[in-house]
Specification:
With about 850 residues, this protein is of the alpha+beta class. Helices cover about 30% and strands about 30% of the residues. It has 20 helices and 42 strands. Strands 4, 5, 6, 7, 8 and 9 form a 6-stranded mixed β-sheet that branches. Strands 35-32-33-34-37-36 form a 6-stranded mixed β-sheet. A 5-stranded mixed beta barrel has the order 10-11-12-14-13. The longest helix is centred in the N-terminal third of the chain and has 26 residues. The radius of gyration is 39 Å and the shape is elongated.
Length: about 850
């Protein structure tokens, strides 16, 4: 029964009880939409909360919970089989944010803030970090966990309608530093999410992964496995129609198969058979979960395929598949099917029992080669073929004719007491008798003539009227682009190694004997000149080859230093053109060479910087981002003004986007393709008045301490009504001792004379020195007399005793004492020994 039918039934029952229609509607809404009720209650409490603080807190709590719950419900529709904890907020006074799971709820502890953006980001971030996939995270790599937390939190925040743009911008700004280290994984996840598989496959399988491993010690093997699964999904989402991307992922824990419905003809001509065949091969590798994917006009076909698979009784539908639109606005659907072990086994044993009487042939998959025979799998039922039952001819080496994962034809002989079924291959298409007689065992070298050529495979005459040879592209070349019909002309003869065989179709699979991986002997080096054959254009780059099997990529942004020239160069380059390029980088793991047309030796940006460094120039402001302002100079040079170069203490340059402005050229970007500019020299400097009034080394009249810290102290210097903060670091206080901390050292001093050590305009900072004052006052030690007493402050200690500062004279001395004194203590002392080098005081 659908939600609409339940809604109508409940409304009818409540109305029959005589309740007013408004009460009926309110009860029904509260039943079906509790998240919206929370939001409405929160809004009502907000207005009352202007008067009462407690109500305001409750209001914000309800609004936050309602908004987050609404977003989590949307997420839950894509993951109906996943238990997603309900988010509940508890205000606390501590700063350490955390979440606690209790009875299906994630209680998020937050410090209350009137900033709603901050509250919602904190709530979502803590919830995802401590309540989402918590069983899986110990078995994932650190960067993968960070990337998943970032991506899931972003998805939750995107589902919140109110103030969404500000919330997302603030959230991404906070993650800016972390994104550098997790950019690759975030990009992979984003591509997977664009295809709609983030929730439908990745999160579901990671949840299964964690639940499967609960209680086990985390290890690098598990972390590597989860990383590999992310790469596996990313490859599937980025594969082209003709790519040979692996569609099965089989590791220790995760065993997943993906079936793509890509061709209508396959289903119309062969029905369910090709899909069942692929599922059987997956079952033999231990795969129990299969994802069926289709898009656009194949969606309807997949719905038929899935329906037929479910009708076999061997599968359980895990999700609630509904078609959706991916980031390219294409209709997509995803089915998650899991093998129903019980029904599959029951059905298969029934088929085997019938075949025992009728000698009917069945299909199975080879799971293991043994010296005494073959282990096989028939729809999940374990079987065995003894060596004497493999062929009518004698077989000395099983490996020459059979391989693991091979689909073969079998006849059952008997069902053993352990449930293992014994089979024979004699009198089936899988009997290698013909191959034995023709000497086509696996690993043998043979000659074969081309008799048919397609772009993906070539068929060969192997000299036997009943047996045909076939070789697919991957066994003929490492190139995705070379034209097979040009390399393998009809009638030409080549040497091959027998790779595999198909008894059912009397076919042997061949691999070119001299086929070698070009990457094993690659002589191309970084920054070398190469010739690039353009084979394909994609959205962002040209893709092609430098030699057969060695792929290169020439991004459009690498066509010129100037964006204004890129489009013209791009249009001038045609498919099959040979372009002279420079190697920018080599990625051996991805087997890809990155190319550029930019001449690094003649970078125009270097020339411009040399001529204009620290000069004021005119630029056109194009766009302002959270990181800074982008613009252009002379309509071609790119310039970027970072956030920290746009102001002095809040005094900001008035830059107008879409207009011409002034900027000072500062330096070049790390990549050398953009200038870095600054507005600071165009803004009155905050220390301009100070630097005009005072000079470095100048002794200031005694000034008052503002604050003390471990590292030093801050002071206020006034010029008229304007106040400037200056810093005194602990290393600039004493000549006689090391100051551990400045906290408490100046508590009993109202004012103290200090010298200006530095006026740093770049850092916008004034630093002070007490040492310079002490050095200037060294001659004052001669004014000290044995008969006088001096008010002194304890500032530290050394191996001679306490180091004290004599107020008024502002010189340092040593106090020899058996007493214990705290730093900052004021004492009245008299000289014990006087000299030009050091004054020794006593408290006796």
């Amino acid at each position: 029964m659908g939600e609409a039918e339940i809604y109508n039934d409940i409304r009818t029952i409540l109305t029959s009880l005589g309740l007013p229609i408004i009460a009926v509607i309110a009860i029904v809404i509260a039943f079906f939409f509790p998240d919206r009720i929370k939001i409405w209650v929160g809004v009502f409490q907000y207005h009352i909360g202007r008067i009462y603080v407690g109500v305001r807190k409750s209001s914000i709590k309800n609004r936050l919970e309602g908004a987050c719950t609404h977003s989590l419900k949307k997420l839950g529709k894509e993951l109906p089989d996943l238990e997603i904890p309900e988010l509940s907020i508890k205000w606390v006074k501590e700063d350490n944010l955390q979440a606690k799971l209790k009875e299906g709820k994630a209680i998020v502890k937050l410090r209350f803030s009137d900033d709603q953006t901050r509250n919602i980001i904190n709530a979502a971030t803590v919830y995802v970090k401590e309540a989402f996939l918590i069983h899986s995270k110990p078995y994932m790599s650190k960067n993968f966990v960070k990337a998943m937390d970032f991506s899931i939190t972003k998805k939750i925040l995107l589902g919140i309608h109110n103030n969404k743009r500000n919330v997302i911008s603030e959230f991404i700004k906070e993650y800016a530093l972390d994104l550098n280290s997790i950019q690759d994984k975030c990009s992979q996840i984003e591509v997977i999410d664009d295809a709609g598989l983030f929730t439908r496959i990745l999160i579901r399988e990671l949840d299964f992964f964690g639940n499967k491993l609960i209680g086990r010690n985390p290890s690098d093997d598990y972390k590597n496995e989860s990383d590999k699964f992310l790469s596996f999904l990313h490859e599937i989402t980025t594969r082209d129609a003709d790519d040979l991307t692996p569609l099965q992922f089989v590791e220790n824990i995760l065993k997943v198969g993906v079936l793509l419905v890509a061709k209508k003809d396959t289903y119309y001509q062969h029905g369910l058979h090709p899909y069942l065949r692929r599922i059987k091969l997956g079952l033999a590798r231990g795969i129990k979960t299969f994802y069926l994917l289709a898009r656009e006009d194949k969606v309807e076909i997949l719905e038929s395929v899935a329906k037929e698979l479910l009708l076999t009784g061997n599968f359980i539908l895990i999700n609630n598949p509904r078609s959706f639109s991916d980031s390219y606005n294409r209709e997509v659907i995803c089915y998650c099917l899991r093998i129903d072990t019980e029904s599959s086994l029951t059905s298969t044993y029934r088929e085997i029992s019938l075949a025992l009487d009728s000698k009917e042939k069945m299909q199975g998959v080879v799971t293991k080669l043994r010296e005494d025979g073959l282990k096989v799998d028939v729809n999940g039922v374990e079987g065995f073929v003894q060596i004497r039952n493999l062929s009518a001819s004698k077989i000395s080496d099983i490996r020459k004719y059979f391989k693991e994962k091979m689909l073969i034809e079998l006849i059952p002989i008997e069902i053993g007491s352990t449930g293992i079924v014994e089979f024979t291959l004699i009198d089936t298409c899988s009997d290698p008798n013909n191959l034995i007689n023709a000497n086509f065992e696996i690993g043998r070298t043979i000659s074969a003539k081309v008799k048919y050529c397609d772009d993906d495979f070539v068929k060969f005459d192997v000299g036997h009227e009943k047996i045909e040879g076939i070789s697919f592209r991957k066994d003929l070349t490492y190139s995705r682009f070379s034209l097979l019909h040009k390399q393998y002309e009809l009638g030409t003869e080549h040497e091959f190694i027998v790779k595999n065989n198909d008894f059912e179709n009397n076919t042997i699979y061949l691999r070119l004997k001299q086929l070698k991986d070009p990457w094993d002997s690659l002589m191309i080096r970084k920054f070398s000149q190469v010739n690039f054959l353009v084979c394909r254009k994609v959205n962002y780059a040209f893709i092609g080859e430098l030699q057969e099997g060695v792929e290169g990529i020439l991004a459009y942004k690498e066509l010129s230093w100037f964006s204004s020239e890129i489009e013209g160069i791009k249009n001038s380059i045609k498919l099959n053109d040979n372009v002279d390029c420079v190697v920018k980088d080599i990625d051996k793991e991805k087997r890809l060479i990155y190319l550029t047309l930019k001449d690094r030796q003649n970078n125009p940006y270097f020339e411009y910087l040399d001529a204009n460094r620290n000069k004021v120039v005119e630029f056109f402001a194009i766009e302002e981002t959270i990181y800074g302002i982008l613009g252009s100079i002379e309509s071609k040079y790119q310039v970027f003004i970072p956030k920290n170069e746009q102001s002095w203490n809040g005094d900001k340059y008035n830059c107008k986007i879409g207009k011409n402005n002034k900027v000072v050229i500062k330096e070049l970007s790390n990549r050398g393709d953009s200038l870095i500019g600054t507005f600071r020299p165009l803004i009155p400097h905050p220390l301009a008045l100070f630097s005009n009034k005072f000079d470095v080394g100048q002794i200031l009249k005694p000034i008052k301490v503002l604050n003390t810290y471990n590292w030093g102290a801050s002071f206020i210097i006034s010029i008229g009504h304007k106040k400037f903060e200056a810093l005194l670091f602990k290393g600039d206080i004493s000549n006689l001792c090391f100051i551990k901390s400045c906290i408490g050292i100046f508590d009993n001093i109202d004012k103290i004379p200090l010298a200006i050590k530095e006026i740093d305009l770049d850092k916008n900072r004034v630093t002070l020195s007490l040492k310079e004052v002490l050095n200037n006052n060294l001659q004052r030690s001669r004014e000290c007399k044995y008969t006088n007493e001096y008010e002194s402050i304890v500032i530290g200690s050394n191996n001679q005793g306490y180091v004290v500062l004599l107020k008024g004279l502002w010189i340092e001395a040593i106090l020899e004492s058996t007493q214990t004194y705290e730093t900052g203590k004021i004492l009245t002392l008299r000289p014990a020994r006087l000299s030009d080098e050091i004054i020794i005081l006593t408290d006796e």
